[in-house]
Amino acid sequence: MHPVTAAVTARIVERSREARADYLARMEAARHAGPGRAKLSCANWAHAFAASPDGDKQRMRNPSAPNVAIVSAYNDMLSAHQPLERFPEIIKAAAETVGATAQFAGGVPAMCDGVTQGRPGMELSLFSRDVIAMSTAVALTHDAFDAALMLGVCDKIVPGLTIGALAFGHLPVIFVPGGPMTSGASNAEKARVRGLYAEGKATRDELLDMEMKSYHGPGTCTFYGTANSNQMMMEMMGLHLPGAAFVTPNTPLRDALTAQAPIRAVEIADGTNAYAPMSSVVDEKSIVNAIVGLLATGGSTNHTLHIVAMARAAGVIVDWTDFDELSRITPLMARVYPNGSEDVNAFHAAGGMAYVIRELLDAGLAHEDVVTVAGEGLRRYQQEPFLEDGKLVWREGPTESLNPDILRPANDPFLPEGGIRLLSGGLGRAVIKTSAVKDAHLIIEAPAIVFEDQDELLEAYKTGELNRDFVAVVRFQGPQANGMPELHSLTPVLGVLQDKGFKVALVTDGRMSGASGKVPAAIHVSPEAGLGGPLAYVQTGDIVRLDAHAGVLEVLVEPADLAARSRAPKPAAGFGYGRELFGAMRRAAGPAEAGACTLFGDVA
């Protein structure tokens, strides 16, 4: 084990000792209580399967017959979740083959940041994670299950399902993904047309035509954003069946993996020799593995929020210093758009997660000795699934990259360090995704231009006010101010200005997502402006210094002078698009470094 990985893990274990012990005690108590159906009255239990087919009813009369919960994010508006429509019937049929039943326990919402980018609905996006967690708890609280399957893919859905399922961590839980859509128009061509549209050199029809060629069928978007980072993370944490992440939807292999999930869930249920509750799978080591996987593949900055919140749900406490120290020793092994030109399908074909996991384990950067839903520790995940005569089997994955332009070994990486860094200084603490930013742009010192929202910046760009060196300070975008929306719509215009030769950067208490691109962006600045953080005192013309090499984020104003200024007033919360319903969640949200979560009131 690499000494830094070992040291960070030991520090997390010590920091989490009390919270983890409390969590495990609660899960052990839930386990010993047994499935609730054995304690329900006949009327209560009859309610639980009144609409089931006769064969299922007969099995469910037996209180010891396994019953598997299905919690799904299905909807047919969003490409990533549309394939999940078919999964319950596949799961129910497979469960029957091992004498079990499966019930659709509940659905959770699934909103798409790709649809709401730049729109008011984006202010609900991050909080939808916590709504999903609570919806998962509602689905499982009937207490009628021996195991659970989580059907979800995208940005807030997988973290929300994880947080909710961890409240029932005495159960085995397997995540069942839908897979990425097949590749469409190239990412380079998509970026080119987006840039032209930002400059007014392409029409809206031309832009829409290109976007439709990119997002063209069922499955996740194929760039390496938060959705596909989720799938990486589930492999690294041992919550998928091995190799399940990037198999495309509606294929025989995808269906075989889906059918195997309930069978495996029954095999690892309580009372078996292979019992693997979620509370054992998600621990300090698997959380470190998730962080290392994120860094090695150049994944989404959203996971500097989500991993923290997911870990906290399991009694594990991590912070951005942990990410930063692991990043400094984790090599960047993958170049997947927006950190490269190819998509996740090409990454998968080049060796994908099986190769990444093998390399990280061999380099001592990830923990092998963890509990997984597949058994045998994390080494099991260097295998890939195949069909042999219609039967699902696993074989050893590639020992060498099949495309070194996309995937490289740990001892010959694209960069010696991971893609995420911590910044700190007079403006607070922030994270920056460096893997897609050229080295020449990682240090900038320029006058600030302060904006209270992203629309102000876009309007200034349209009127030609931004043709100069500057640092865009977009504030009051934190969780307590307006729910911490992604500001992805700023990437094209800032990229155009950078391409013109101007030195530009973004500093914000909002988010930028896995689509963070080539412009340096200090994001998740904490404390946020809405709580009186230093961003609330910055004025246009102040010199801001961002140095990703040194990990510095400063405003070059004397601290006493900054403190003597009047604090910029917090804008009124927006209304419409459901935003008025989330006021209590804005008020309850913790700081970004604690996961921006509304569910853990004891986290300051």
How would you portray this structure in words?
The chain has three domains: 3-33 and 66-182 and 217-396, no CATH class; 183-216, no CATH class; 420-572, Glucose Oxidase, domain 1 (3-Layer(bba) Sandwich), CATH 3.50.30.80. It is built from 23 helices and 14 strands. It has helices at residues 3-15, 17-33, 42-48, 54-60, 87-96, 113-116, 125-140, 157-166, 187-198, 204-214, 226-236, 252-267, 278-281, 284-297, 303-313, 320-327, 344-349, 352-362, 454-462, 479-482, 490-499, 559-564, 583-588, and strands spanning 67-72, 101-107, 147-151, 173-175, 383-388, 391-396, 420-425, 428-433, 443-451, 470-474, 504-508, 521-526, 543-547, 552-555. The radius of gyration is 24 Å and the shape is globular. The model has no long low-confidence stretch (mean pLDDT 94).
Write the layout of secondary structure elements.
Elements: H1 3-15, H2 17-33, H3 42-48, H4 54-60, E1 67-72, H5 87-96, E2 101-107, H6 113-116, H7 125-140, E3 147-151, H8 157-166, E4 173-175, H9 187-198, H10 204-214, H11 226-236, H12 252-267, H13 278-281, H14 284-297, H15 303-313, H16 320-327, H17 344-349, H18 352-362, E5 383-388, E6 391-396, E7 420-425, E8 428-433, E9 443-451, H19 454-462, E10 470-474, H20 479-482, H21 490-499, E11 504-508, E12 521-526, E13 543-547, E14 552-555, H22 559-564, H23 583-588
Parallel strand pairs: 1-2, 1-3, 3-4, 9-10, 10-11, 11-12
Antiparallel strand pairs: 5-6, 7-8, 8-12, 9-13, 13-14
What's the Cα radius of gyration? 24 Å
Across the major sheet, the strand order is: 7-8-12-11-10-9-13-14
**Total number of helical segments?**
23
In helices, the fraction of residues equals 25-40%
Number of strands: 14
N- to C-terminal distance: 33 Å
Structural class: alpha/beta
